[in-house]
Amino acid sequence: MSRPIPCALTIAGSDSSGGAGIQADLKTFQELKSYGMSVITSVTAQNTTGVQGVHHLPPVMIKQQLEAIQADMPLHALKTGMIADIRMMKVVAEAIPYFQAPYVMDPVMVATSGDVLMESEARFYLREHLIPLTNLVTPNIPEAEMITEKNIESAADMEASAEHIVHGFGAGAALVKGGHRMGEALDVLYDGKKMYRFTSDRITTKNTHGTGCTYSAAITAYLSQGVPLEEAVRRAKVYITAGIRHGFSIGKGNGPTNHWAIREEGARDECH
Ligand SMILES: Nc1ncnc2c1ncn2[C@@H]1O[C@H](COP(=O)(O)OP(=O)(O)OP(=O)(O)O)[C@@H](O)[C@H]1O
Ligand SMILES: Cc1ncc(CO)c(N)n1
User: Fold this and answer.
1) Lowest CB count within 10 Å: 76, 84, 105, 200, which one?
2) Domain Pyridoxamine kinase/Phosphomethylpyrimidine kinase: where (predicted)?
3) What string of H, E and C letters represents the secondary structure of 166-206?
4) Could you confirm whether 210 is annotated as catalytic?
């Protein structure tokens, strides 16, 4: 009997420049050989310098996209990215349990450029109603601080924050990402029982547009293939680090990561 095709879904905003959001997620699913599907929440007019405009889809249209997938498509893992307001979050929160698939939440609040992508009051709804539905939440340090309302100054604080998100707010697991602040690119994963650390050398680059989206999409792709959580994060970290190392200097601002970089690294490794 042939194995089922792994199917992954992203519920997120569209980034016209193709480096973050839905576009980053679908490129990542494709690269890692999971069949990718999308539910678009908002359309952004965006490039490497920032977000010039945002149009939110009516919640009823988000619901219709979710129902279209539920009615017909197999699904083995899903992620959420930009969900800008409470009305949209409600629709998503109602739909998630019906999928019966691992759920990864990237709690997108602010773009790399500093533009706000989620209404500030919506963070309480996200914390109370969406986080308890997750198998994994992947905040960066500012997002983890926003969720727990506690400052993070050290690696130990990152671990405490991950524990707080799991035991205090009901996430299945939490991956707190230190890319923005810590010396090396340290991420900590807490799965409710054990703490894991993932590190890579910090790469000096301004081409980090969409790193968080791409990382959580890679984790989702591996989960859709039945890879256990810790191993999925480990492999996704390799994927995003290669993507950052081979990021593209395109546009006038923060260029995008390279979604096919692991192919380049594979090729390079074979040469040496
Ligand atoms: N300069 C860097 N060098 C190496 N790894 C990095 C660098 N910046 C971020 N990372 C890593 O990339 C991954 C994505 O984390 P990051 O903190 O950038 O997410 P994010 O802030 O959610 O992204 P975004 O800016 O897209 O919202 C993490 O594993 C992080 O450690
Ligand atoms: C649509 C969208 N989602 C997420 C991010 C976060 O990087 C972004 N810049 N744009």
Assistant:
1) 200
2) 15-258
3) HHCCCCCCEEEECCCCCCCEEEEEECCCCEEEEEECCCCCC
4) yes
Task: Determine whether the shortest distance from the Cβ of 217 to ligand 2 is under 6 A.
Answer: no
- Report the separation in Å between the CA atom of 74 and the middle of ligand 1, taken as the mean of its atom positions: 30
Distance CA 89, CA 131 (A): 11
Which residues are CB-contacts of 183 (< 8 A; sequence separation ≥ 6)?
A: 202
The pLDDT of residue 179 is: 81
ipTM above 0.95, yes or no: yes
**What gap in Å lies between CA 250 and CA 253, rounded to an integer?**
8
Question: What's this model's pTM, rounded to 2 decimal places?
Answer: 0.96
For residue 1, what pLDDT is reported? 57
Residue 130 · residue 92 · CB < 8 Å: yes
Q: Is 7 a catalytic residue?
A: no
The protein residue with its alpha carbon nearest to ligand 2, atom 2, reads: 21
Model pLDDT for residues 183-240, shown as the tens digit of each residue: 789 999 999 999 999 999 899 999 999 999 999 999 999 999 999 999 999 999 999 9
Residue with tokens 């839905």: 22
The bound ligand whose nearest atom lies closest to the alpha carbon of 216 is: 1
**Ligand 2 binding pocket mutation candidate from 10, 40, 213 (most atoms within 8 A of CB):** 213
Tell me what the mean pLDDT of segment 120-142 comes to: 96
Binding site membership of 187 for ligand 1 (Cβ less than 6 Å): yes
Residue nearest to atom 6 of ligand 1 (CA): 179
- pLDDT one-digit tens code per residue, 5-38: 999 999 999 999 999 999 999 999 999 999 999 9
- Pocket flag, ligand 1, residue 178 (CB < 6 Å): yes
Helix (H) or strand (E) holding 47: strand 35-47
Domains, the chain, with CATH or none: 7-271 (3.40.1190.20)
Element (H, E) at 42: strand 35-47
